[in-house]
């Protein structure tokens, strides 16, 4: 269907996410990769389609802005999503939970508001979640629930937000956790002694 092995398209960010609506068809053959680290573009993105995998890489340190639309959930083969150090606003779309292959999600240093979708806990392959340095609210209990989600999560960065409440005992159910970064929130209460039951935890 696509004759060339690599196609370079320059589109607006809005047009790109409109393009995502047809990605389930294209995803049968092609990989979406980004190499735009620190390009200082405000509303454009170079999209390269090639045959080597499934990732949206290196969109960090740009000036991409607007909301992250629900169409992102159409990229079913997506494994990596790097959107840190941009100006995205609005809520983190719950549709990210529709990406069963997602392993790495970087949303650090944007302007996201609202709560972190607890539905992300259904992502069985998610190993790294970084939503630090945004304007996120809510409690860890709302986010983690009973702690039975996030079975593969190793690194969790929630620092520099407006999270409130206590550190719930259910955090100990994240047994693969190695890094837990919670600084600069509005958490109260004592540190849960159940943290000692996270065998791989090395950074708190």
Automatic annotation (TrEMBL):
Topology with respect to the bilayer: Single-pass membrane protein
Transmembrane spans: 7-31
Predominant subcellular localization, coarse grouping: membrane
Keyword DNA repair among UniProt keywords: no
Listed name of the protein: Uncharacterized protein
Location in or out of the cell: Cell membrane; Endomembrane system
Entry keyword annotation includes RNA-binding: no
InterPro entries listed in its UniProt record: Leu-rich_rpt, Leu-rich_rpt_typical-subtyp, RLP_Defense_Trigger
Keywords annotated in UniProt: Cell membrane, Leucine-rich repeat, Membrane, Repeat, Signal, Transmembrane, Transmembrane helix
Pfam families in the record: LRR_1, LRR_8
GO cellular component terms, semicolon-separated: endomembrane system; plasma membrane
